[in-house]
Amino acid sequence: MNAPVKFETTLKDWETDQEVRWCPGCGDYAILKAVQRTLPQLGANPANTVFISGIGCSSRFPYYMESYGFHTIHGRAPALATGVKLANPELDIWLVTGDGDGLSIGGNHMMHVLRRNVNIQIMLFNNEIYGLTKGQASPTSREGTKSPSTPLGSYDRPANPCAFALGSGARFVGRGFDVSKNLPDVLKAAHAHQGAAFIEIFQNCIVYNKDVFEDFAAPKGAEDRQLWLVPGEPMLFAKGTKGIALDTQKLALTVVDVAGDNWQDAGVLVHDATNRSLAHLLVEMPFGPFPMALGVLYDDPRPTFETAVIEERARSSAGKDANLAKLLAKGQTWTVEEKAQQSDGHPA
Amino acid sequence: MATSAATRPQDTDIPEAVVVRFAGDSGDGMQLTGGQFTLSTALAGNDLATFPDFPAEIRAPQGTLFGVSAFQINFGSREINTAGDAPDVLVAMNPAALKVNIAALKPGGLVIIDTGEFTKRNLDKAKYDVSPLDDGSLAKWDVLAFDISALTIEAVKPFGLGNKDALRSKNMWTLGLALWMFDRPRDPVHDWLRAKFKNKPDIANANIAALDAGHAYGETAELSGPIKQLHLPPVDSAPGLYRTITGAEAISLGLVAGAQLAELPMFFGGYPITPASAILHHLARLKEFGVTTFQAEDEIAAICAAIGASYAGQLGVTSSSGPGIALKTEAMGLAIMTELPLVIVNSQRGGPSTGLPTKTEQSDLYQAVYGRNGDAPMPVVSCSSPSDAFECAIEACRIAVEYMTPVMLLTDGYIANAAEPWAVPDPASYTPFPAKFLQEKNGGDTLLPYKRDAKGARPWIKPGTPDLMHRIGGIEKQVDTGHIDYAPDNHQAMTDARVSKVLGVTIPDQEVALGQPGGKLAVVGWGSTFGPIHQAVRRSRAKGLDVSHIHVRHIWPLPKNLGELLHSYDNVLVPEMNTGQFKTVLRDQYLVDAQPLTKTSGQPFAIAELETAIGRFFDGIEGNEGGEVSVNDTQLPSPELDA
User: Fold this and answer.
1) Best residue of B288, B373, B387, B420 to probe chain A, by most A CBs closer than 10 Å
2) Which of the 8 DSSP states describes residue B132?
3) pLDDT tens-digit map of A171-224
4) Cα separation of B317 and B614, whole Å?
5) Residue A32 in contact with partner chain B when CB distance is under 8 A
6) In terms of residue numbers, what domain contains B148?
7) Which fold would CATH assign to domain A11-212?
8) What is the pLDDT of residues B541-573, one digit of tens each?
9) ipTM of the complex model
10) B463 and A47: CB-CB below 8 Å?
């Protein structure tokens, strides 16, 4: 979105000379490739692109992107990115964070970057575990997750990243997973969105939380377990044999069978990404009884924070003279003359 | 008393300096009264210093002891450095204000009392069993007690206000009396009231009427005897244009000036905290100077956003007070590691934890110099007065930009709120230090983001610059390339480079503020203790004592000549409003036997306290029998000195 001029690059142009140090088989590799594949398609300019991250496995991401990059401190990337964006709104900023970085230590900043609507893309790699610190339960770990810090299984209820984002006031909520071929489309939609775009990316930590997403991410049976949301299209899955409808009595979503092409008769909803009420239902739609909702769950832009800051600055400065000498001598002043003193007692 | 020997009655009818304290309920508008009296005093050409002392509660229950708010001003026809020790005049608007403040009043001083507030209920709230007006307990002072409340209601009657609204003008009535007592002009207050109540002319006029009535009361009362008008001639100041300024204003203006000298837009990230918020408020109104202010979600976000702005090529600034500075600590480490310019203003207050939010202290020096994980060196500059704060803010900006480093600027609650006359500087008299941004690769075909210049600073590279893409972060950097590098030799080299860069910051040699190098005693201060130390040393020298005042602005790195200078004295005394933090630094750096004089009552040093402490070093010297100087108010000798 940010770069008005399309820049010609290839995937290779976005690779750095640094050795990638994630564990072999980590889902991060797939996400890295998906991003490096997407940026040339967006016509992004590496010099104008900034990747900003916090701390954790995912936050090593900037080192592998041949753009500007800032690997900050744990949880604070949204705050730092806000400063970068306000200082130079022309920069195209991608934030990389994880479930611990973005929702635990940095949950506060995540909430505020979303509610302020700073125009950046936020990729939250959710592997439901603390990887870099060797496998403790995270705020998104499912109840009962056994880890070094929860040997008998975790007992705190997990946070739902997309529900958190929506509740914080996000105007774009998307979802994908590391090896999905559709991930670039979600990234592109996020990039096209003017404002804070939140993307939850399920990421397989093969060392500490292996295959926790297999039940919907595995290629086999994916049709039955993934609902890819496309604005303007009916919410169909299982090769069009099932769909999502609204139970108007319970104000809840429900799975309906679709006979042939008659999804309309079955009451299947058409995805309206600007419908905030629908977005609330979709982010809360539990996997299991329902397929996993993926793609663009919500996309309804509002004016961005940096635009408001620029406008306020202009309004505040209007008609004022930025003369430092005058500013210093503002208010009531008096003059001490050579030898004799006197005061004028009037504003300068 | 404290202000000057000349205020003692036997010296002259017209004192050189007078200390007035306005005290009332926090709802009585004492800070406004004090502020306006200050302005009128400045316009009359006196030198002055003020000390606002108000409760942490926004609306403390009316009439209570803890709801008392006071404003002290010391003004005179000679140089004034402190708000004065003991007041000559106390204005007490209710029993609680009297109870809290009367002990400080100089014996023989004048206390003006509003008897209209001395009701049974208010006396109970102030924990008076018997009215002090009736029990003779005020005998050692001149008491001027009359019903200010009733007189105010009478004065504003033509404006048809209810009693409750009418009584709101009580502070203006009192101000009018005070203006008369010291022959101050009323016009500036009239102008101010008209501007403040532009849309409520009735309120403006009622307040003006109250002010004029108080003034007229003075004229009448003089005829009948109890009070006399006192005219203090203007101070002999250097020629030039003057205004009054508080420390918070001076820092804000200094930051704006610093950003201009660096030719950079300024980004200010802040979070509300007492007493630092005033800087955010000032800067929020100066957007035309290329200032962006950002009220962040917390202290950490405030500094991180400022670091982000510096990374993107602006001058990042953040500001807080002790507890907030503690929260920013990790991010300071990031700014040190990524070597980005940043100014961190710490308006110190009493601690630890929430401590004394509205009271002053200097207890964050360790935090500033040492308080980070890892070897994390950072320059520290400290302001000694409201006007000095302007210079220090510029200095902090200069060091940050020239050395690519975060800089901490220490001020405190006293400086932030206190006002003093300020010779308005000419911005053109400052040497610019324009920031330079790298525009092309600096290592032949490669970019070296951590290649240092002669000062040890790395290049500043703005994202958006073509062909200079690179990555930075908090992980240890490889020398020159900035790549991640955990190698032992590399960490040693980078630690050394960070330390030597900061130690190599060019700062002026230390000068002696009063006295001369060498001698019996040096009193070494830093920060807002300048005023009381300076006056105490001045008076001690007037008595013939061989004592000098050294005031250190650059806390880190310390001036190159400071060690040699300190060793040229037989004794070194370090007064601080903490438990001896700078003393420890001096001992560590110079193996000098620096003696502490500490105070952590939340109140600034009194001149008398310092004179006493100085006196102890001159036992048996003529003019100082018994090793003490004579003072007439409470002394708080330091336990360390007794030991």
Assistant:
1) B288
2) T
3) 999 999 999 999 999 999 999 999 999 999 999 999 999 999 999 999 999 999
4) 39
5) no
6) 17-223
7) Rossmann fold (3.40.50)
8) 999 999 999 999 999 999 999 999 999 999 999
9) 0.96
10) yes
